[in-house]
Amino acid sequence: MNNFELSTFQEKVCAIPEAYDVFLGGGRGGSKSATMAILAFRHAEQYREKARILYIRQSYKGLADFEALTRDFFGSIYGTAASYNQTEHFWRLPNGGYFELGQLESPKDYTKYQGRSFTLLLIDEAGQYSTPSLLDKLRSNLRGPKDMPIRTVVSANPGGSGHHWLAKRYVFKNSKPWLPFYEPNSERDWVYVPSTYKDNPFIDHDEYEKQLRASCPADPELLKAWLEGDWAIARGAYFSTVIDEKRNATDPWEQIPEDPYTGKKWKNWLAHDYGSSAPSVTYVMLESPGAKGPDDRYYPRGSIIIVDELATSDPHDLTEGLGYTIPHLSERIINLCLEWDINPYGVADDAIFAQHGYSEGSIANEFQREGVYFERAQKADRKSGWEVMRRLLQDAGKPDKPGLYISRKCDYFWSTVPYLDRDPRNAEDLDTRGPDHAADACRYGLMNTVNKTVSKKRLQGF
Q1: How far apart (Å, rounded) are the C-alpha atoms in residues 199 and 184?
Q2: Each residue of 275-292: pLDDT tens digit?
Q3: Fewer Cβ neighbours under 10 Å: the N or C end of the chain?
Q4: Is the pLDDT of residue 456 over 70?
Q5: How far apart are CA 57 and CA 217, in angstroms?
Q6: Nearest 5 degrees, angle CA 405-CA 155-CA 35?
Q7: What are the residues facing 22 on neighbouring strands?
Q8: CB contact at 8 A, 436 and 410
Q9: Distance from C-alpha of 431 to C-alpha of 249, rounded to nearest angstrom
Q10: Is 460 helix (H, G, I), strand (E, B) or coil?
Q11: Burial of 108 (C-beta count, 10 Å sphere; 0-12/13-18/19+)
Q12: CA–CA separation, 110 and 49 (whole Å)
């Protein structure tokens, strides 16, 4: 740091245009805090007396390491020309910039920031916040001159109490790392930039890995998160040992590729779990003939790729549906199929084929009248379905075995499936009290590959 040498990772972060907010979301030791100090320095040098920077941690105790880092960094650059007020925790820089190190743990703590303005907001260790509400409130303090960009940079390691909301907002979005995506809560464009300790050339990698392994010997999922920066981990969850962001997440596809052997599109079908007061989930599923996808990744024959999702869940409650009627839901499903140029045809839960009393026929009949055609998933027992799903998740990435791959576009899947608990009365099953609608839809679609339901029906004509 004294020689102002940047790592390759830090150079790439600095190259991101200031119009984009940044999520530094990787494993432990990836130099995220040091990168924040560098961004603060650059902001102050660019905008001088207009620069008003706020760095946030949950507690003052947590500020100690970053305070020491800035003393070393700014002291080496400015010498005695920069002054630090230890009581009020702020830097006065010789270019006129103001840099405050702040604490935010409760709504009461926010009062000291109310009505104040900042041009750069740095939030470190955001995973310590179980909900984003306090941090979201801070965004109201971002204000600057018309010709000056304002920006937020957030850093976190996977595995903390805020893991779920951070993964949902910034990791499993409709983009791959290092590419911009729109984040609706902030109404801003963000870039997710992962790193691990291996991206930090200023530490002893072997020694640091030993320290991490020693810190969590009985928690392999957390160790994996810290070492690899894997946001798909969920400690003790049903799929925790078989799902991996790097193996199972794919970049979004724009179209269904052609089978290189037949010239036809890869086999495709819908998988549907019905809900009204509960969420309804519909997936576009493909089966690889043993070929490369549009992302230039090879998918062994029989691999299943979920390329798109329609989930009717309340954005603030993953267990609540939006109350769509079947005509409204059918219209959404048909539009989804039009986007992919496929037939609105697939498999669904056996329950929608039962006769019900408030309408003529079954829910499946109602879908058919609207132009959406489902066959019974023939799902057999739940345990068999989960075993198929677990095996395919685990085999993803192997060159000679089919696996299950899910697009980052499938937000509801990545927000729920990795975190579903086991049934406390039956370790071989999911706890149905959780938001298991995406998992169920996926299971129905996978059992189609076992039972060949859609293929048989298509032979008879659609």
Answers
A1: 30
A2: 888 899 999 999 999 999
A3: C
A4: no
A5: 27
A6: 115
A7: 153, 191
A8: no
A9: 24
A10: coil
A11: exposed
A12: 25
Q: Are 41 and 210 in contact (CB under 8 A)?
A: no
Q: Which helix (H) or strand (E) holds 83?
A: strand 83-85
The answer, yes or no, to whether residue 460 has pLDDT greater than 50, is no
CA distance 144 to 138: 14
Sign (positive/negative) of CA torsion 330, 335, 340, 342?
Answer: positive
Helix 437-451 and helix 382-395, axial crossing angle in degrees, nearest 10: 90
Judged on CB neighbours under 10 Å (0-12, 13-18, 19+), 9 is: buried
Handedness of CA 196, 198, 202, 204 (dihedral sign): positive
What count of other Cβ atoms lies within 10 Å of the Cβ of residue 20? 17
Tokens encoding 51: 């620069």
For the record, the structure tokens of 402 come out as: 């089919």
Q: 181 is written with which tokens? A: 């995506």
For residue 312, name the pLDDT band (cuts at 50, 70, 90).
very high
Residue 258 DSSP one-character state = B
Q: Cα separation of 23 and 166, whole Å? A: 9
Q: How far apart are CA 260 and CA 253, in angstroms?
A: 17
Instruction: Give me 175's structure tokens.
Output: 């983009």
Structure tokens at 436: 């298991």
pLDDT in tens, 359-408: 568 999 999 999 999 999 875 678 889 999 999 999 999 999 999 999 99
Alpha helix ranges (H) inside 6-155? 8-14, 32-47, 63-78, 107-110, 133-138
Per-residue confidence at 461, pLDDT binned at 50, 70, 90? very low
Task: Give the H or E element holding residue 375.
Answer: strand 373-376
The tokens of 81 are what? 């020309």
pLDDT in tens, 204-222: 889 988 988 888 776 777 7
CA–CA separation, 374 and 343 (whole Å): 11
Q: What is the arithmetic mean of pLDDT over 115-135?
A: 90
Distance from C-alpha of 127 to C-alpha of 156, rounded to nearest angstrom: 5
